[in-house]
Amino acid sequence: MKYIVQGGSDKSGLKGSIRVPGDKSISHRSIMFGSLAEGTSIISGFLEGEDSLNTLRAFQAMGVNIDGPVDGKVTIEGVGMHGLTAPAGPLYVGNSGTSMRLLAGLLAGQRFDVELSGDTSLSKRPMKRVTDPLAEMGARVDTAEGGKPPLKITGNQSLNSISYQMPMASAQVKSCCLLAGMYAQGKTCVTEPAVTRDHTERMLKAFGCDVEVQDSQACITGPAKLIATDIDVPADISSAAFFMVGASIAEDSDILLQHVGINPTRTGVIDILKLMAADITFSNQQEIGGEPVADIRVKSSSLKGVHIPEELVPLAIDEFPVIFVAAACADGQTIVSGAEELRVKESDRIQVMADGLVALGVDARATDDGMIIQGGSIGAGTVYSHDDHRIAMAFAMAGLRASGEIHIEDCDNVNTSFPGFAELAASCGLSIKVLND
Ligand code: S3P
């Protein structure tokens, strides 16, 4: 599938009041914890995208009765910590790094063997970052050459607790260790080098599990037990980010994004856009199921280039593709550094974005750990998303400022995180056509 977005002189701004789909990180975790809990959990606002559906299917394959999703509602009959059963074959998790890395921790503590596999993109991504701490805990997880998927997990190992100093700022690695820690004897602690998203810690608490968090350390004491609870999944700030940037860069925009999760470990994109002089305001702030949410209003503004503070990088890690587009439209230079993790996402997001921006006539230079962009104008041309959902959607928003048509190739994977993106963006004023090939 490809997108054609129409730039040119008759471009309009983004307008409307919309709710983007449910948070991907929270949707994955709601299935995992609901499945292991005792009792029935009802999830609302669940993301019906391929990534979270792959997690849902994995638990169905391990014998959990899961009904839905129907209009974002999922009913899970929890089987308890030891109620999962061996699946008939390998668990295929598609494009989803979160499914593979969190499941690796969870499945390391089961009494059966299981294999986790993924698509071409996931099969190139590093898994040693989870198999190393799991090996320290006494788990048996074999990888393909170079620490890549598939993962072959041998069950029936007795896990010991560890105190792990994480070498990179990764919520997936932290969560993997904590989930394995639920099956270990004693207290497992993970210390992170920078703040990362804390949905695992928050949701485990909502499921009645005692997670201790102090400064940069999270600890869990095993064996743990989860009690069913209902979860209201807020709209995904990572999906809302495309509209925040779109509304900021397009003249005559005024958009309201409803019920967006504003967990402080996820709001780096808002802090960064505000540093760039974006006009973003919150209303209707409330806390739902341990997660803060708000309606977010964004109006057009004249962005300016900034050197993005490195401590904001992990708090905006998934939003850089579209932040690079904002930088291309800003006045002056934007420097991103300390963001080498972007090279091991669904694609090498530093190289792929730099190549695409250059193809559109932007002065963008990839560095080892980020990018240097001179803001100016965006031209017309063809860009390749390399099957990366967030690259495709970022370049779609670039159309709001392009001098002509942008053709975006390989957009099928937008469905992993944002089903209905093109239709929703079109309803707000983006001139976007979808071509099926
Ligand atoms: C996620 C954590 C982040 C993020 C990913 C989802 C999660 O990955 O990029 O999209 O749900 O825990 P890392 O923790 O590897 O940075």
Descriptive account of the structure:
- The protein folds into two domains: 2-22 and 234-435, UDP-n-acetylglucosamine1-carboxyvinyl-transferase, Chain (Alpha-beta prism); 24-232, Enolpyruvate transferase domain (UDP-n-acetylglucosamine1-carboxyvinyl-transferase, Chain).
- Helix content is 28%, strand content 28%.
- It is built from twelve helices and 23 strands.
- The chain has helices at residues 24-36, 50-61, 97-107, 128-136, 171-181, 199-206, 237-249, 268-275, 320-329, 349-359, 389-398, 421-427; strands at residues 2-6, 15-18, 38-44, 65-70, 73-79, 91-92, 114-117, 140-144, 148-154, 163-165, 186-191, 211-214, 217-222, 231-232, 254-261, 279-288, 291-299, 333-336, 363-367, 370-374, 381-384, 405-409, 432-435.
- A four-stranded mixed β-sheet has the order 21-22-1-23. Strands 2-15-17-16 form a four-stranded mixed β-sheet.
- The longest helix has 13 residues, at 24-36.
- The chain is globular and about 65 Å long.
- The model has no long low-confidence stretch (mean pLDDT 97).
- Bound molecules: shikimate-3-phosphate (S3P).
